[in-house]
Design goal:
339 residues; alpha/beta; Rossmann fold; Helicase, Ruva Protein, domain 3; 2 domains; two-stranded antiparallel sheet
């Protein structure tokens, strides 16, 4: 290990100690779901947005709210509905009769962490307003653009089983999310702990049945410290072989034949160049979670499904044969040589 890398390792070991404190605070409320919590923190550290998909009742919203509580930052939850308007999200101009002028009233998007609950229930105009905020970190009210507070992060949830009255996200917007998480059911042991914890809390607290408040989750880090951590994440060392490994994985989604994979008939479109950037950043952030100053192939393999699953567009043949993006990614990770 070079002296420069050794120095960075010491810095990261010191500056990443808040990760363990955040995990401890989150564990007061969230039972299990460690992969989901890790990836929410990867999104936070890498400066990316996260889309969570899972059936109702899997603590998606609760996990996001708990994460926000561990940071001394502003948090807004927006329930997306079919009658939501862009102005309800970004704000609008209010006419001041006394002065005869229009003044901006900023909407709930002006927060460090924004939870877009059931994002696919809002119409296209609202989704496009959110798109500008996610990509540009700014919104336009009238003729003026306003910067959003930093750090800024959108965490969106969607229900995969109820599609009536929904507006599926366009590919251009889905691609803006760094990660798409598939949230699964807890184990039997974990669900028993949930049963014991939550039946003691809900309905008895006098705090609007808020487990985050009841369990006393404390803020352990400030927005400025998150910004410093993001700067450190970008300094994490990625070897040339790891960079080529990332490229091999992404290019295998576009030209599977060159990687000697027989999955070509199932892929309509492969991952975009944004996938390459986000996979490298996500691997760096995951290394930071593990208090390391360098990326390993395992970091890349761990984050690849969450970075790629929403960027691989399948053919009708794949849908007919019940081939999922996860199956494609698994085949690629098994065949692409690991450095």
């Amino acid at each position: 290990m070079s002296s420069e890398l050794a120095s960075l390792q010491e810095t990261i070991k010191e500056k990443s100690d808040f990760i363990d404190r955040m995990n401890s605070e989150i564990a007061k409320v969230i039972v299990g779901q460690k992969p989901m919590v890790d990836r929410l923190m990867v999104g936070l550290l890498a400066g990316g947005h996260v889309l969570l998909e899972g059936v109702p009742g899997l603590a998606k919203t609760l996990a996001v709210k708990t994460l926000a509580q561990t940071i001394q930052a502003t948090f807004q939850r927006i329930q997306f509905t079919p009658d939501l308007l862009p102005a309800d999200l970004v704000g609008t101009l209010i006419f001041n009769q006394k002065e005869g002028t229009f003044t901006p009233r900023k909407g709930p998007i002006f927060a460090n962490i924004v939870l877009a609950d059931e994002i696919n229930r809002a119409p296209a105009k609202v989704q496009s307003a959110l798109l500008e905020a996610m990509q540009e970190h700014q919104v336009t009210i009238g003729e003026t653009s306003y910067r959003l507070p930093e750090p800024f992060m959108v965490l969106a949830t969607q229900n995969p089983i109820e599609q009536e009255g929904t507006y599926p996200l366009p590919e251009a917007q889905v691609d803006r999310f760094m990660l798409k998480l598939k949230v699964g059911y807890p184990s039997r042991r974990e669900e028993r702990v949930i049963l014991d914890k939550m039946t003691e809390v809900l309905g008895t607290t006098g705090k609007d049945d808020d487990p985050v408040a009841e369990f006393g989750v404390q803020a352990v880090i400030s927005p400025n410290e998150i910004q410093e951590a993001r700067s450190l994440v970008r300094q994490i060392y990625v070897d040339e072989k790891i960079k080529n490994y990332i490229l091999d994985i992404v290019f295998a989604t576009r030209n599977p034949e060159e990687a000697k994979l027989e999955i070509g008939p199932y892929i309509k479109y492969g991952a975009s160049p944004r996938a390459t950037i986000f996979l490298a950043l996500a691997a760096k952030a995951y290394a930071f979670l593990r208090h390391r100053a360098y990326v390993t192939p395992d970091d890349v393999k761990t984050m690849a499904p969450d970075v790629l699953r929403h960027r691989i567009i399948l053919t009708y043949e794949a849908e007919a044969e019940d081939v999922r993006p996860e199956d494609i990614i698994k085949a690629i990770l098994e065949e692409v040589p690991v450095p």
